Amino acid sequence: MAKYICETCQKVFSQKGHLEDHNNRKRPCKKDNTIEALVEKKVLDALSKTNDGVVKIDPIITNITPSNQMDYSKKSREELIAICKEKSIKGYSGKKKDYIMKMLNDTHNPDDVKNEIVIEIITKSNTKKLNMIDLFAGTGAFTLAFQLTNNVNVVFANDMVEHSKKIYDENFDHKLTLKNLNDVKVEDIPPHDILTGGFPCQPFSIAGLQEGFKDERSNVFWKILSIIDHHQPKCVILENVKNIISHDAGKTFAIIKENLENRGYYISYKVLNTAEITGIPQHRERIYIVCLKSKKIFDNFSLDFPKIEKKPVSNFLESCVPDKYYYTDKSTTWELVRANVVKKNTIYQYRRVYVRENKSSECPTLTANMGEGGHNVPIILDDKGIRKLTPRECFNFQGFPTSYKLPNLSDSNLYKLVGNAVSVPVVKLIANRIIPLLQED
Q1: DSSP H helices in 301-410
Q2: pLDDT at 428
Q3: Nearest-CA neighbor of 318 among 410, 387, 421, 249?
Q4: Which terminus of the chain is less hemmed in, N or C, by CB atoms within 10 Å?
């Protein structure tokens, strides 16, 4: 059936005579500029938000779409769950990202986006995802934090601990390579833009023997250098205990810094405390060393993050805890903990021969030896009694989302994994700041 369209207002008529009557009326129709005006405004807004004031709009990759659905594809599962909570949408628990997206779109109110035009301007410089490798990956905290940016592909992850592979593979689509890094050929590691690694801290830790480079575990640093030599990543991010700065009168850190600078990297480093910059109340001071090939990126990058208010300890505790985590009068340490653990919403630490109260409304630094021989065990008093923090609660204090899966491992192994992990939100702060700079380069 033929259709007749007014060239001025774009109104459609089924009969030619109706169109002629429309054109011959006393009050002429007017051109509807609403859509064009909205498009123009959106484009100008987008242009005003760019750093250099110029956006190259490629018609192949620029989408201008009238929207009665929100685009949730770039959001993480955790962000989608947060939106569900805001909109009082239930049924997302245990569901995959695609299902949650469908739930949100199915319940989306078209009135919310009346006359809204979504303009997506994607420049060629930021369409390409950066490739990353995660060394000494453990729980995959670096992987998780960088993947949350939606701008990174993790092309290789490695650890030599079997329990690490089990928890990593449980939570990520790609698989961890279970192997001593010294036995991995550098040419077998895929090309990458970013290298991350919380290399073994025991050789430098105050809690250890502080043998530094005399400890064979520290030999992996030289392996990291060989990987850097072969692949020349744009960015290297290393994490370790803060004591590495002062170890051996500063000589250890001087060696690390010198070897990285000799390879053409500009070095930025700082001790960051999880409790100060993330809102998560765990006192965890770790040094982050960010190495950049580009002087321009280095000049625009900083590890200075604002301090924010800590959330209450109670926000990170479970409501239903199995009896096995509670102390009883049959426990060998019962009299000691009963006499000293007297306040609720306060975390104490049992250190073999004494109990120490944390008076800063924080969880003390979680360590790998929690639960082993009763050393460094964080304990609390709740309505039921005195108990240890559960493994899940420890993962909460490291900033892992509740969707992060804990495999069927012993508590001691889970404590060790989470004690060795990096704090996810600290790494996410770094990732959110460094990724845009690397993509612009």
Answers
A1: 334-340, 391-397
A2: 98
A3: 387
A4: N
